[in-house]
Each structure stands twice: as structure tokens, then as C-alpha cells.
Known about the structure:
The complex is a heterotetramer, with two copies of chain A and two copies of chain C. By secondary structure, chain A is of the alpha/beta class. Chain A has helices spanning 8-11, 33-42, 62-66, 82-89, 100-112, 175-181, and strands at 20-23, 47-50, 70-75, 94-97, 116-119, 133-136, 139-145, 149-159, 165-166, 182-192, 212-215.
Amino acid sequence: xxxxxxxxxxxxxxxxxxxxxxxxxxxxxxxxxxxxxxxxxxxxxxxxxxxxxxxxxxxxxxxxxxxxxxxxxxxxxxxxxxxxxxxxxxxxxxxxxxxxxxxxxxxxxxxxxxxxxxxxxxxxxxxxxxxxxxxxxxxxxxxxxxxxxxxxxxxxxxxxxxxxxxxxxxxxxxxxxxxxxxxxxxxxxxxxxxxxxxxxxxxxxxxxxxxxxxxxxxxxxxxxxxxxxxxx
Amino acid sequence: xxxxxxxxxxxxxxxxxxxxxxxxxxxxxxxxxxxxxxxxxxxxxxxxxxxxxxxxxxxxxxxxxxxxxxxxxxxxxxxxxxxxxxxxxxxxxxxxxxxxxxxxxxxxxxxxxxxxxxxxxxxxxxxxxxxxxxxxxxxxxxxxxxxxxxxxxxxxxxxxxxxxxxxxxxxxxxxxxxxxxxxxxxxxxxxxxxxxxxxxxxxxxxxxxxxxxxxxxxxxxxxxxxxxxxxx
Amino acid sequence: xxxxxxxxxxxxxxxxxxxxxxxxxxxxxxxxxxxxxxxxxxxxxxxxxxxxxxxxxxxxxxxxxxxxxxxxxxxxxxxxxxxxxxxxxxxxxxxxxxxxxxxxxxxxxxxxxxxxxxxxxxxxxxxxxxxxxxxxxxxxxxxxxxxxxxxxxxxxxxxxxxxxxxxxxxxxxxxxxxxxxxxxxxxxxxxxxxxxxxxxxxxxxxxxxxxxxxxxxx
Amino acid sequence: xxxxxxxxxxxxxxxxxxxxxxxxxxxxxxxxxxxxxxxxxxxxxxxxxxxxxxxxxxxxxxxxxxxxxxxxxxxxxxxxxxxxxxxxxxxxxxxxxxxxxxxxxxxxxxxxxxxxxxxxxxxxxxxxxxxxxxxxxxxxxxxxxxxxxxxxxxxxxxxxxxxxxxxxxxxxxxxxxxxxxxxxxxxxxxxxxxxxxxxxxxxxxxxxxxxxxxxxxx
Lengths: 232, 232, 218, 218
């Protein structure tokens, strides 16, 4: 059950133009930096990327947008990326904006074998167009469908060779659900540890969801909004 | 945000005949022993109990069955309890048997504001009677609805006064989903610790789901099937 | 006329002991600075933290610890981190008692628009649609009028809406208003602001009954 | 005729390196004792563990560490515990490559009945309905006939079914059979058992093509 691969190149073995990818992270927090860099190098294109955000102009998924490798984005918030806005308004980039909670739940559903579920989010808005509406407990809900991906690419704090993962702080975000929803799930970790080092009571993503794992060479972990208070 | 109460009596404040309860545990593993004992003492009756199992004749929910305090059970497997089988076959006890995975997911849905979801489990069986069927990806699924309860009663390993909980081993089972689905959620823990002692990265049930918490006086933690191998 | 800080301060008076609260970006964030004495509340941020603390001291920033506005934050003792599905389970499952968020427009039936200006601004709804569709208690914090002086409290939203009939209360730089069957109901005036000024600045139906008190600040 | 241990041993030959496997109660549990050399598999138990190890040494039992049969077990290095919703996410989401379970009846279209005898036995389906509805690869381990000598491989299940058209393969004390469009297809005979004996013990449609080899045990 040794799922360790040598690095992002080996982890992405089998990737093709036109595939659908899920990429974990919230803003630039908890994104799979090393694998994104490799996607740029591999020059795969026509990608559909499912990710809460689209990075910033010069980091995260912004790097793939710069190279026009993405055909379609499925996201909830893309406000930090000017290029994205330009590409979307000009029609170069297809965009499906969906509520953040529905995005998270749709990924989980994809991994959990639940093809569809009802949620109140988006009822009465653009998001509900073409979707079934049903009243539960007097409140209208819309039917949302599961999301899956050819590759799910997640970033964790630590992992072992079974693929068990733990995340740190708010870098967890979408990573655990996306890890569940990939036909092939790649995990890049800050630290690869020996089996048994992770307490089995405190595994966030059990290894069954992960196919390939590697320790990232370096993590820039860029901060978007550095907010601080002064000491004293 | 101090949710600590003095014990099971205070935790059950407001309980009434005819209420619906969820009780965590799988078999006798991870059941809220102290609160069950208190339910017996309080002599509340006509209860609807949602619990994966129904205990054994003289422990767990079996104690409430002995006193005929339960009107209806919603469970997935009740094979360890002879009294249960007798009460059910004689019609004294109303029983709704549902697939274990659907039970877990229906509790989670109840806590997560998802009124209904599709699952393949039970299609074509008694469980599907009267339920909507829909094909997804060529496979028939049935629509299952959320479950909630007046009181959800869970058992955890450790907890703090915010209601944050961690579970040990396979004693986790249904407890986290049920904790989400109670109008009032009671947690009995083996050890009440100071806020900050639990690592925020490794909380299984965030305190927002818990209303009342106490440290159980004693835990018998009975074993149903003691299977061992010999040393050497 | 209230400053942004005063709007936040007035909204903070709505906090009750034991509340879990989700604060949106902008004015709502400032509410955390005015928690009334003697009560304890917990702040939830939808990217995955309960028990959000103040900004870190300079030099203590952690890239792995941010709020939904992507700002570096700290965690209080007793905090918990969780994934996005669990976070929205809290929100959708109505475990959060109060949601405060900004808006571009609010209609007098409680509709809210705060995510999109067609052909111009496409940032996305983020968690706003889940929040407004789920929360029992939604307060909007915003200016009463836009930069052109036009009312943001309307008969009908002109922008794509974020949610229908969901806002309960609006706190602006001019007034506190509740959403009722008959439209906005004036509850309080900002210090020094007359009822006439509020009527003039409100395009939607407005109910004014009896004497309208001025807001009080501790 | 195979013993229960031999049925388990034959099923173990279906294991492949890297498989995650869910074993039901009874004969299926024994499969764990016959993992072929040179391959690594992980056992999932639906009550919430991945990486199940052998029974504990006498005195090391832990009430908080059991399998779905409520037996005390151990956890291997690299194990993980999780809640029931996550456990069935693994199962329903087809992350488990092989499911082995017992049955009272199997029909020649792949229907299975293993949870209820009306008016007599009401134990409940536990996780069986989720498992059979979800798994891509389901092997049934059972005796070919019941105590009265009646076939358990039927045209149609007489008992309430657990799942429809889901079983892929059946391993009994007499034979290995696959479910095909034309009914049960005989794949292997137990050592010393003739095709005629299998035909006689099978009530459902049975396809016998060419020479049927005997099972091989290492």
C-alpha cells in the first residue's frame, strides 16, 4: 500500500488535455503549489478546474490562467484575480459560479456516492435556473448534483505512505472533500512521515481516498492579506 | 460559552414523554451510558429512539426496552437483543429498520440543513417502498430524508467547556453526525479538559453542535464479543 | 450620520450571550470590536474556524490561518478548525445564530443583492448565498445610499439577487429598519438624523409608526 | 466439499495488491487469514476503521476498538478511525474494491437476500444494503444448500431482498459461479465434486460450458 511517488511529474502521470481537475485551497491558503507549477510545465490545456478560488494574477491557479490552460472554471469567488475577470467578461473563459457551501457539498457528494441533494442555497437566484425546486418544511430548496474529477489535487500538512493526511489550521478547507471526489487523487504534503506516526484517531483524510502522495519540494505559502496588530 | 452541566439530570432538563432521541454508539461501543441510566430513572416514556442498535437485553438501550419506555426504534441492526425481537414481532414496539449508511447520512443531513438526498442503498427492497426513485448514471437511486431529534445524546472521549469533542477508536461511529442533528445535543465525556487543551486541528465535533456537556461518573464500557488470540 | 464603526457598534448591540456569529467582509468585520461587556460570543468564519481571535502580532502571521476575507488571524483557546463541508453544515443547519453581511441593495420584502453587477463585476457569491438562504437571523450592514446618492433600500432589487426574503434587519448610516410584511419599518434613527431624511433616502415602502427613538450608544 | 475455511481461502485468491476490502460477518471474516503472499490489502470495517489488524492478545482488548461484528480487534500501523458517515462515503463512493458477504439466498440475476425472514428473524440489514447497492465487485460466500438440503442458488429469491442484480460471483462449498445474463455460470468445481452434483444442488438457471476445472489451493 505504498502510494509514494517521486514528485509532481510522477503524480500527474496520465493527465491529458481537456480533463477535469479539482484543486484544494481557499484563496492561496492550502493550495497544491508544487503540482500547479508542474501543470504549467506540462502545458496541458483545455482544463476544467473546480476550485473555490482562481488564485491571484501571479500565483496559484492564476499561473494556469496566464498560460490560457484553463477552458472552464467552477468556483465560488474569484474576486482576487483581475485577469480572470477580464477573460470571463471577454468570453475567453467559461465560468460556472456556484455558492461556496454547495460547492463543498457537491464535492463531498461526488466522493460519497450521493448523486444529488437538496439545499436552500441559491433558491430564487440565477444559480437556481434550470434546477428542480422542491419545498421542505415550508422552505424552497433546489436540487444540486455531485461533482467528480479526473484528478483531485490536494495539499496537506503531513501524510504517510498509505495516503493518510492531516491538515493544519484553515488550510484544510476544500481539501478533504476534493480528496474524496477524484478518480485519481494526488496529495502533496509538507512532510511525509512513517506509517504509524500519525495518530489513527486524528486522521483528516483516510488513505483510501488518496492514490498518489509526495512531499513538496518547497512551499511558498503566500499570504494574501497580511493583517496584524502592533505589540504592546 | 460554558456549556458544562452538573450531570445527566441537568443535561436532560426539558425532556418529555413522546420525544425523539438520537443516541450514539455502535453495538455497546461509544454509547452514552450515564445518560441512558438517567433516562431509566426519569421514567420518560413513549420515546422514539434513533440509534444504530438497540443495546443488549441488560445494557444500553435494552434497559429502556425492559421498562417499555420506547414506543418506536429507528435502527439498522438489532440482532443482539432478544427482548427487542419479541416486542417487535408481537407488535408492542414500532420499528423502522433502515440501511446503516442511510441512517448515518440521514443524521448528518439533518444536522447540515440538507432535507433530502439520493442514495442507491435499498433500491428494489422493502426500504424503497413509497420512496421516489430516480436514475443517475444509469443506476436507480432512492430519495431519503433528513433525520433530526429533540435530544441528541452522544458519548465522547474528551471534551471542553465549549463543547468541543474528540472520540477514541471506533467509539466515534454515529456520535459526530448525531451531535449535529439534535435540537439540544448532550455530550457525556470520559474526561472534561480545560479550553485550549484539545488541539484545534484535531477536534472531531466542534462545540457549535453541542449544548450541554458533563463528565460521566463511571463508564462500564461493556464488550459484546471478546475475541482474542493467545500470546506467543 | 453614523460612521462605519458606529454601524458596527450598533449591530453589536444585537449580540446575545452564547451566540455563534458569522461576520461578512467590510463593515460586518468591525462588529467583533464592540462585543458588549458581560457576554460571550464565538465567531465562525466559513473557511473553517470557530473561535476566531484578533489579528496576530506583527511577525506572528501564519499563512495557514486566515479568515474568509483572506486576512491573517489568530485562534482563541477552545477554537476548532474544520473543512468547508462541515463549515456550511453549521451554516445551512442553522447552528449559527446571527449573520451580519454587507449588501449593494436590499428590497422591502427582504431580498438582498450583493454579489454581481452584470457586465462589470464578477467576483462570485462566495458563501453569501448559503448564508442568506440558511440563517434565521440576518442583519445587513450598509450605507443607506450609494455614491450617487441613490437609495439602496428599494422596492425591488435591480441587481441579480443573492437570496429571497431573507433579511430581517438593516442597519445603515441613517437608521435601523426591520423588514415587515408592509416593507421597511423604521425602528431607530441615527443621532441627529430626522425621519424626513430617512424617508427621502428610502425608495422602498417605509412604515413609520409613532415616535422613532434615536440610537443609543453606551 | 469445501470447509468454511476453504471457501474463505478460495475467495482470498480474488484479492489483488492494493485492494481495500470489506468483509462481512461469518465466513467472509475468515478471508483475512489467507491473504496471498506478496500482496498488500487493507480491511475496512463499516463501523469506522481502515487498517484492521488481528484480534488483540488476551488482556489487551479495548472496548473502544471493535469491528462491525462487535468483536474486539487491533489497528495496524497506518490505520485510521472515522465516523459512520465517512465510512459509508467510502462504501457508497466505490472506494472499496471488494466486498465479501454471506447470504441466505442468491438469485440467478444477482439479487441477494440476507437480512430478514418475515415473522421469524428481524435482525436488520445493518450495512448490507449499502454495501450491495454500492460495491462494484461483490462476492458471496455461503453454503450451496441450506440445512434442509434445499438450494440457496435460486431462480428468484423467496426472502425479502437486500439488493437487486448486484452479486458478481458466488463461492460455495461446491463451486465458484459467476452471475451472467444467462444465470449462474459454473467456473470451478470443489475438489472431488462433479458437475452433476452442482447441477442438482442449483435451482436457478445454470450455464455449464466445456470442461469445468477443479479449484486449486496453494
